[in-house]
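Marked as duplicate of an earlier ticket. Keeping the data here for the record.
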Amino acid sequence: MTDTAATGAAADAGPPRWVWADARRVYPALLSRGVRLSRCHDVALTEGLLLAAEGRYGEPRQAEAAYARSHGLPVPEDAEERPDGDQGRGTQATLFEPVREGPGVAETDMVADVFAGQLRRIARTPDPGRFRLLVAAESAGALIAAEMGHDGMPWREDAHDALLTEMLGPRPVHGMRPAKLQALADEISAALGRQVNPDSPQQIVKAFKSLGVDIPSTRSRVLQTVEHPAVAPLLAYKELARLYSFHGWTWAAQWVRGGRFRPEYVVGGVVSGRWATNGGGALQIPKVMRQVVVADDGWTLVVADAAQLEPRVLAAMSGDDGLARAAGEIDLYAALAQAFGGVREAAKIAMLSAMYGGTSGDAPKLLAVMRQRFPKAYAFVEDAARAGEEGRLVRSWLGRTCPPASERWRRLVAGPEGTRAARDRGRFTRNFVVQATAAEWALTLLAVLRGLLPEPARLVFFQHDEVIVHCPLDLAAEVGAAVGRAAREATRLLFGPTLVRFPMQAVTATRYADAK
């Protein structure tokens, strides 16, 4: 399916909300023609949310599948298609080309039919108002993801090349290692007394075993426990080899064009609603690479992230007044410290243990304090964990629903490993309700901020709770203020009146590295 069908719908005040089957395959072509839209309803993303809410997580979500399901027809599998993040790869139909036939119906009619059905299903969710906000934020995310892939993050190719040359040596010919990696490989072989390929875990494990050193793997945390002359160069090799593989010259040739890093973002690519990438590694930029993210001349980067986002989300969701008062401060952990003997780190451990199910070290003692001082917050995550242990579904604040318990999990629960399997799922659902809501807050922030940015400022990066805007220098103050306003509006939209604050401190810098 070309996914080109769309209908303009002005269901409420404001710009038209475009309804289409899948923004990934429609919007990039429009962007390449200079067309930017304000709002959309993404049928595929919405179908995924609704299927999960109905306990049918993972079923095909494209428009053909949704139409077939609602009309009792055979349901086709979703096509495995890469989002066309650059308009130079593959074929890309446009929004206004003639549509092809779907399953016995014209594509425009099919999309309109599925859209109407989705509205009816949204009205049947436990809280339709919240779910509509989730759909709007997710669909806005589809627009933003395409725009960030189109606009790209500023990336100094000369600085990237210089950095790689400094760290690895000159760019090697095809099939050869960079000079510094090869020198480390030679050092590793000499220390182990035999020629080994440091990229082969099997060879490394075997070489250590021949020297009387048994290691289960070549993971860094395992090697750090071993005293041997080969360990230091091997750890250094692993770090540089990762840089070479994931952000080296070959990577740049594929993902950096025209002084811009252009990744392909996947909205809701993680079960919690966090984004993923379809190649490019935009969500895993090493710290050392931040120095090559440089604003254009006369422009700047405005970098902002939400401090202690998940604990603040828990405070707002649970309605725990004590925790909400602490979350009204800039440093939530410092505000909580008094309840934990004046030790900020103890407050942090208690909060993270409550949200992630930690039980090691001082966690049990600190959790007992939290249960006493912040009973609603503690009970909130405990209820979510209990639901997971019992195989039930849990939902985020706006209604994103976790995947159902698998048949394999149910078999494990019925067997000798049942207690462990139940607790593992409980840890997942305990964190899901908080992390998924944090993702919703961040996505709502992003959608609001997009509408507040002055031209020609552009969102160029988003990762969990961090955003980067590229803008002219004289607009930096206005953009910084827009970030704060967007954070307040996102909080209002999700939680209404609340004591909880979600501070977003905006920092202006020419280089990304200087903002962190």
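See parent ticket for discussion. Residues 418-452 form the longest helix (35 residues).
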